[in-house]
Known about the structure:
This protein is mainly alpha-helical and 517 residues long. Helices cover 58% and strands 5% of the residues. Helix 13 (295-311) runs antiparallel to helix 14. The longest helix is centred in the first third of the chain and has 41 residues, at 69-109.
Amino acid sequence: MTGRAVARAALHAFALVSAAVCLYSMRRADPDLWGYLSAGRLFVEQGGLTTHDPFAYTSSGSHWVTFEYGAHIVLWLAYRFAGPLGLIALKCLLGGIVLYFVAAAMRITTRNPHIWVPVFVLCASTISRFFLFRPQLFTFAFFALFVAILFRFLLERRAMLWVLPLVMVAWANTHGGFVAGLGAIGLAIGLRISENLSGGQTGVRGLTAGTRALWLTLAACFAATFVNPMGARLWGYVLTELTHGTNRRYTVEWGPASLNTDAWSALAITLVATLFVAVAWFACRHVKLRAAAPPIFWALSCVPLIAMAFVSVRHVPIAAIWVGPVITLLASRALLAVGDSPAFRRTWFVLRGLAVLPACLTFAVVFAQPVAAISADGTVLGSRHPCRAVAFLKANHLAGNVFNPLWWGSYITWELYPAVRVSMDGRNISLFPDRMVVENFDFYLKDAATVDVEAPLRYDSSLLMIPADSPVLRRIETDSRWRRIFGDADAAVYVRVGADYPSTFALPPAACVTILQ
């Protein structure tokens, strides 16, 4: 083998190993994982979906929009038959699909591993941070497939556009992120129209030349979103989710990428954006294309996605999946145009070095924690964990309706249902009115002097669970309508005065489980 062949083989091996490590790296439970498993088990055991919620006592009269039911069932079946290892295997399978299609899209733009491998490694480490055990995994996988097929079409390769509507049927039945697929087709239409315009084609015929297949695909994919148990009501929920502001006010993943809240995502998307801006500047300045969309239009297609990623952390992986192949496309064309430019070569050398840094950190994390287990320690459910409070209720065979923080609801349901029903959980506005979601957040997060202590009493609450660092705890301690029956460094449990509960209780073991059982 020549030296060049050895270098190419080494780069391909590095990309493969990096992808494998990134796939495996995130083995951490999500606050809603227990809710996904509970819902999936419910659907499987009763042999179908339901709009009636059995888990919360406050949901009477509400319509449960089970828009992620397919993902819940798959997650439950993986856990039922293989436990935590089954969930890890499912996560790695879906994540592998994501990275495969990301690499495929990049290799469509260039075969030069010196270009696509560092960009791929950066994107893999950026996206893998979001490979949690959640329905979003299906969105990442389907979106990456959409991008790979659309890039093949835009770059005049054989592209099976007919596959996309079929995929959309599955997507619309697993996660509400299917809207991103429609957006990707819209970006592709914009790029194809810009190509027509840059080629001198004007008028209606010119603007539609080469876009007819994309328009038909968009229409077919849109129609496919109605093939679900909820029909058109699914779109009503999705539009509500996109327009209401409660999540952005209270939930970190809906908030902006920040060093204070999610340093990894903030740094990763900053690196992606920096690489994109540098490459786009060189390409837009020096590349003159004869038969493709000008670099400026490819660059503009990335701007809304990068802006969305900085505004909301949850959009970071979507941005990386689209922007990564655009970077390799522009870099390969810039290299051809200004390959002898010392400025470009020095810039690209530095950027390649920065691109692999997140992957190196990921390697270190996996090396430090190689065990195939799903972490469920205290920080998974916030700054405090209700595990001993839940164990207390279980050990004393207590039943009733517990008013609880939204982010603890799924865990409580998983451990104590049907004896205990919760007031709120992570299903958020797919079940509960927005005012109830805000009421729950305010009760546990607002300053003690202004908190509404009447909130639990407006419902049929017989139990009250409060994190030890919640400001409202000071008010409840002096409220004669509640009696404290348990407390530790993480949580306190109260019973409503007058409710039929014993006066003495057994205490649970001191230790909390730190991995998913």
